[in-house]
Every structure is written in structure tokens, then in C-alpha cells.
Amino acid sequence: MSSYVIEVNSDRFDRYRDGGSGGGNSDSNDMDEAIAWARERSQRPETKQAQEDLIDSRRSEEEEAKSEEVMEMEMKDEEIRIWLTGKETNIRLLLSTLHHVLWSNSIWQAIPLANLRDGSQVKKAYQKARLCLHPDKLQQRGGTSPLQKSVASRVFSILQEAWAVHSTLHLLTHAIPLSPLPFSIPMVLWSNSIWQAIPLANLRDGSQVKKAYQKARLCLHPDKLQQRGGTSPLQKSVASRVFSILQEAWAVYLTNEGLSG
After folding, report:
1. Is 175-261 in the same CATH topology as 85-172?
2. Cα–chain-centroid distance for residue 10?
């Protein structure tokens, strides 16, 4: 606490002490005002310091809360990464394990893998997941934290990509005979792949189909992808599945056409 010295005019003090004229009451008031002023001045630094301490305390609490939020985000990112690894394009596995990465009070109910055997079951489960995770639906329900919104957004995007691959591969798998397959490949491959679209009109005879199939093998073969580099896990997974589909379709094509590889 600061200290102050109050100087009193000696003539006024003598008159006040001797009871003489000169405004004793006025001098007394002056003294009271001076003391009050000194007290108020002495308390100012303490008040200012208390305000600064309060501001610092609030800032520290905000920084701590942000730090905890960042840590939670990082932990959740790792959970999502582990959940996604190995099943980037497998919509069935993603849906059957979705409950592992969502928050406990979400509206999602776990679905066993055994309940996702056929296409209609997968489609129904995917639609349920969309209703659970879509940003607009979350906004309507309310009560969702920033962390939960972030998780929902990421998982929603992952499921969308996996569903697109699933739908396209389903079409490719059921495309008979082989000739439409090379024509359909651009629908499922990534934009910067080395594959160049082939019009269906250019796949009329066997030599054209064989040439297109060989190009597809060079584009999608795991060893070739490894040599070129710069391919994401998702792209490698898509390439692997499309490569297998084309191999099976090629074998059927050779059998039907009475040809040899």
C-alpha cells in the first residue's frame, strides 16, 4: 500500500487548536477531505492490480480451455485415422464400426457386419448414417459441441467417398461383357490418374478390348503404382479393387470369346 504525507497550514492549525476564528470547521472539513483523498489514492493501485489479476486469470483459463480442446481434437484425429486405416473404400466395414468414432450420445446405433450383406442393407445403413451426421441435421438437433461437429464432418466426408466407390464398383462388377468396363473406369478413378478415357465406340472388336485392358493393367497394377509414387492409401485401395474386377472380367471375356490370354 502506498503512503501519503498530508501537509497542514500551520496558521490554520494554530487557530483551530486555540479555538480562534478563521474557519475551524472549514479546516476540519479540509482535513477530512484530504484524508479521504489520500485513502482513495492509496487504494487505486490495489484496485488496478486486482483488475489486472482478474484479466490474467481469465486469459489463463481461456488458454487452458483452448489447449484442452486442441488435445481432444488431436486425440480424435488419431482415433479416426486408426478407424479408417485398411477400410478406406469398404463401406460395409466403415458402417459396422462407425460407433467406435462417434460420441456416446449420438443418435447412431451400431450395426453388425452380418446385417450389411446385401446392397439394400448397405444402402439403408448409409442413409441412416447421413441423417445422423449431415451438418444440417446436426444443426436442427442442436446440443452438439465444436468437437462433435468436427468429427461428424470428417466422418461424413469419409462415408461419402466410400459410398461413391461402392456404387461405382457395383456397376463395374455387374457390367457384362468386358468391353464396357474400360469405358466406365473414369467414373471411379481419381482425376490425376494416368488413365485416359476410351469411348465405347473404340471397344468394338477383340483387339481393341485387349489393348484397352493392357493399358488398364499398366495404370492400376500395384507395382506400377508403387513405381510412380504419389498415390494416397485411398487411391491404392481403389486401384486394387478395380484391378481385381478387371482381371475377373477379362478371364470371363476370354472364356466367352474362346480366346487365350
Report:
1. yes
2. 78
3-class DSSP state of 111: coil
Question: Across residues 226-236, what is the average pLDDT?
Answer: 81
pLDDT tens, 240-261? 888 888 888 888 888 777 655 5
Residue range 135-167, pLDDT digits in tens: 888 888 887 888 899 999 999 999 998 988 888
Cis omega before residue 186 (within 30°)? no
Distance of alpha carbon 60 from its chain centroid, rounded? 26
Between residues 190 and 106, the one the model is more confident about: 106
Q: Give how far the C-alpha of residue 83 lies from the chain's centroid of Cα atoms, to the nearest Å.
A: 14
- State the helix-helix crossing angle for 233-257 and 146-173, rounded to 10 degrees: 10
Under 8 Å CB-to-CB from 89, ≥6 apart: which residues? Answer: 161, 162, 165, 166, 169, 234, 237, 238, 241
- Type of residue at 130: R
pTM as predicted: 0.53
* Rounded Cα gap, residues 53 and 88, in angstroms: 51
User: From CA 221, how far away is CA 42, in angstroms rounded?
Assistant: 83
- Give the domain ranges of the chain: 10-68, 85-172, 175-261
Q: Are 92 and 122 within 8 A, CB to CB? A: yes
Cα→Cα distances 32→2, 18, 28, 36, 43, Å: 19, 19, 6, 6, 17
Class of domain 175-261: mainly alpha
85-172, CATH topology level? Helix Hairpins (1.10.287)
What long-range pairs does 105-111 form, CB within 8 A, spacing at least 24? 106/132, 106/148, 107/132, 107/141, 108/132, 108/133
Q: How many CB atoms lie within 10 A of CB 232?
A: 10
